Amino acid sequence: MADAFTLQRRRRAIHGWLLLAPSLVMLTAFAFYPSAATLWASLFSRGTRRRPAEFIGLENYGRLFDDPTFWLVATNNLLYAGVTIPLSIALALVMALWADARIPARSFVRTAYFTPTVLPMIAAANLWLFFYTPGFGVLDRIGGLFGAASVNWLGQPETALWAVSAVTVWKEAGFFMIFYLAALQTIPPDLREAAAIEGAGRWTYTRRVVLPLLMPTTLFILVNAMINSVKLIDHLFILTRGGPSDASKLILYYVWENAFAFFDRPAAAAMTVLVLAGLGTLAALQFLVIDRRTHYR
Amino acid sequence: MRIAIPAAAMLAATAALAGPAAAETELTMYYPIAVGGPLTRVVDAMVADFEAANPEISVNAIYAGNYDDTRIKALAALESGEPAQLSVMFSIDAYDLIEQDLIVPFDAVIEGEAEAEWLAGFYPALMANGQVEGQVWGVPFQRSTIVAYYNKDMFRAAGLDPEAPPTTWDELVEMGEKLTTDEHYGIMIPSTGYPYWMFQALAIQNGRELMSDDGLTTRFDDPAVIEALDFWRALSTVYGVMPEGTVEWGTLRQAFLEGETAMMWHSTGNLTAVRNSAGFDFGVAMLPGNVRLGSPTGGGNFYIFKEATEAERRAALAFIMFMTAPEQAARWSIATGYMGVSPAAYETEALTAYTAEFPPALVARDQLEHAVAEFSTFETARVREGLNNAIQAALTGSKTPAEALAEAQAAAERLLAAYR
Amino acid sequence: MSRAMPQPSRNHAEAMLAILVALLWISPLVFALWAAFHNASDAASFDLGAPWTLANFRTAWAGAPWLTYLLNSFLLVSLVLAGQLVLTTLAGFAFAQVAFRGKDTVFLLVLLQLFILPEVLIVENYRVAARLGLLDTLLGIGAPYMASAFGIFLMRQTFRSVPKELDEAARVEGCSLLGVLWRVYVPAARPTYLAYALVSISTHWNNFLWPLIVTNTEGTRPLTVGLSIFAAPENGVDIAVISAATVMTAAPLVVLFLVFQRQFVQAFLRAGIK
Question: Looking at the complex, does the CB of residue B12 fall below 8 Å from at least one CB of chain C?
Answer without folding.
Answer: no
